[in-house]
Amino acid sequence: MGDTEDRLDSEISTLLTEERSFPPSEEFQRLAFVRNGDIRERSWAEPEQFWANAAQGLHWFKPFDRVLEWDPPNAKWFLGGQLNASYNCLDRHIKAGQRNKAALIWEGEPGECRVLTYWDLYREVNLFANALKGLGVAKGDRVAIYMPMIPEAVIAMLACARIGAVHVVVFGGFSAEALRDRINDAQAKVLITADGGYRRGQILPLKHDADYAIKETPCIEHVVVVQRGNFPLRFKEGRDHWYHRLLEDADPYCPPEPCDAEDILFILHTSGTTGKPKGIVHTTGGYMVGTYTTTKYVFDLRHDDVYWCTADIGWITGHSYIVYGPLAAGATCVMYEGAPNWPDRDRFWQVVEKHGVSIFYTAPTAIRAFMKWGDEWPARRDLSTLRLLGSVGEPINPEAWMWYHEHIGGKRCPIVDTWWQTETGMIMITTLPGVDATTPGTAGLPVPGVRATIFNADRKEIKTGGGLLAVTHPWPAMLRGIWGDPERYKEQYWSKWDQETYFPSDGAKRSENGYFTLLGRVDDVLSVAGHRIGTMEVESALVDHSAVAEAAVVGIAHEIKGQAIVAFVTLKEGSEASSSVEANLKEHVVKKIGAIARPERIVFSADLPKTRSGKIMRRLLRAIGEGKILGDTTTLADPTTVEGLRRKYEEQEEA
Ligand code: PRX
């Protein structure tokens, strides 16, 4: 391949420039856990040394004798060491006098509240761990968890960890078929579910769906059912067991199983935007060290913080930053069962006010929804306890960032925009909140102990400018493989350049100060008149317009330009779609980033097709634009959105 082609294949034009910069306040800096960024340079020079020190923050039954064995693309961390994840999240804090500290402050969607201290959580986890043993679950066995956002979901995960069983959490919003496929892939022996859960005033009939799933999962021997409400269900004697009944008969103490650092802690499936879900494998030692350390560094946790991550435990964010990281760090965590707009659009802010939340971690898709609903909702509530905000899951457009900063953070809270993946297990790129100035829309630098850079297709480093994000050294919480598919593991993540460099499939650009800005998935990158343009930049230019709440752009085959940009736009409430708004938006993009990015067409829509975790599925929008069949839509949160959009698109085309 020639030089130019290589460039075209990998380098991404950078169009938007962002000059705003927000340093942390003096007070934040003074009290911060990390006050000096030098730690980063030192850690990048000697990552093993950094992680060996970080590992001392956890309790090891047997110390490790080797930090890293790297046989690309397979890594083993903390060899010879033994530990237990639930011991690190519970016993350790109880021994240190934290028995009565709140571990979980839970609020159900209908409004009830439960507070579990570290002791309460410890007691329940021990009982349930013994109950699982009673059902024949042994070390290494897989246990599926299909639960609403209730404390028992966390208890179930920690109970598995306590006995060395491998949990496979399946998001409670997934269908029976999705559950069935994941159970079969992992060959789980026990399924833990609930009679139901609440979401937007409706009941999620989990046990009912689970009954369908397990008709076709011969590996499941027992089903444990938590009673969340008094929801009707069928009970099969012998196979189905009430959680509370099992606890009544269980012994109160279950010794934590000493696990080798490389014993599997969990499998979590990720579907990406296409294809069969991959069971991402995470092991105990490295994952615990990675999540514990990043929780402390990035969220700056202090003893009296009230920390709320709004993710569902069915996603990696829930695993790493509701359960393992914060609990290993001894935090008080808020957990909320339901929707952000139930009964009203200020529910999240009501939760913040009621529980005095100080650290709040959410996703750009939620922030854009709040923007769309209007400023008055957060304004009704007292958000003065907040001191740090976080974002994860997608690039956050600068305009959404500014809204978050002003309307939620009261202009005083640093925002950590954290880039990472199910596969990375832990946060990889962000700012250290007590050290770094932040730039709207820009994630920041690789965290201590992580080496990352930007390459072109030839593995030539791009110092400033856009290209392909690459992780150049193993890190402790990295995936250890795809369950049952070592070939796909190599092919998917380690074959872009050499066997030693991890390719996350994201585009990124680096600014003069070294900060990384994420540009979107490389499969979505636009190619207009020979320029590769990240979706993020054009979308951000659109969201920058005062009428726009959310935008997704795709490239559609065009005879002359290669691709033409089509933008799907959701307007803020109170704004009406019209041809003059359309013309305005096109001009706005030209003004912000240049004529090259002028959208050929703008389609207005009240909703965009999203996965259940809130990511926009640009693949489907492209299919609509190119008149192709849609393919797999089973991971969509609302499959009707995309059909509606297609009709609208075709009507417009005819007109
Ligand atoms: O494209 C990146 C985007 O989400 C992908 C990972 O998705 P998932 O495995 O579901 O994990 C989400 C929660 C960690 C990434 O490859 N992504 C995640 N965080 C960011 C992001 N894109 C830009 N900025 C982020 N902060």
Automatic annotation (TrEMBL):
GO terms for molecular function: acetate-CoA ligase activity; AMP binding; ATP binding. Residues 537-615 form the AMP-binding enzyme C-terminal domain. Keywords: ATP-binding, Ligase, Nucleotide-binding. Its EC number is 6.2.1.1. This is acetate--CoA ligase. CDD domains: ACS. It comes from marine sediment metagenome. InterPro entries: Ac_CoA_lig (IPR011904), ACAS_N (IPR032387), AMP-bd_C (IPR025110), AMP-bd_C_sf (IPR045851), AMP-binding_CS (IPR020845), AMP-dep_synth/lig_dom (IPR000873), ANL_N_sf (IPR042099). HAMAP family: Ac_CoA_synth. GO terms for cellular component: cytosol. Residues 39-89 form the Acetyl-coenzyme A synthetase N-terminal domain. Belongs to the ATP-dependent AMP-binding enzyme family. Residues 96-474 form the AMP-dependent synthetase/ligase domain.
